[in-house]
Amino acid sequence: MKFTVRSWALLALSLGVLAACVPQSNPNNQPDVTLSASQTYLPSQTGVQWTYLPQDAAPNDPPYRLTVLGPAPFGDQIAVKYRFAGRGVQKDYYRQITTAGVRLLGYEDTVSTAVTRFNPPMLEYPPQAQIVAGARWGGTTAVESTIYPPNARPQVIYKETIEYNYRILGKEKVRVRAGEFEVFRVQFEAKGSGGAADSREVWFVPGIGEIRTKEGFVLAARNFG
What we know:
By secondary structure, the protein is mainly beta. The chain is 5% helix and 56% strand. It has one helix at 5-16; strands spanning 49-54, 64-74, 77-86, 89-98, 101-109, 114-125, 136-147, 155-176, 179-192, 197-205, 209-212, 217-222.
């Protein structure tokens, strides 16, 4: 399949929301969810929620929210289900979080009925001990998106092989709507077999998640300490 601008936009959106994870305390400064001692990397505890806004949004603009819904099946595997919703968007992301790192199996788009799969799963973050300045990781994965329209046969709408790479540029303090954080600046690059390429920067904090996502969304609030 030709790697079109439209298909690349679909891929870029799927990679961006680790669509992800960003937090601040609630208005009363009392966390709604108490994380267990094991939640030191990317929080995956049911009920955890992050709130995002585009970087240039006004404070009262409608937000996006990422919520952990808990373990759920995706194909023949069990993963943690993260729901990203807001402004007419609803996507469910399926991640496996182990000592080997954070892997994205795929996601479901409720609005379009599309299901996107990564084979093998995309390594979004390596083992926690490897999150240091200068670290690199990546791989190659086949991406396939299939729509499931009501009363019709499924249809593959996108199929491509991509090569992706991450690199930690360094560590620095940043201030966003949610406050001040010492983040790892992570450079993300991807290239499709058709030649299209993308490059973005993410800000990540272990135990919290992404302070700035690939799309440029920034942390506005969180319901855990």
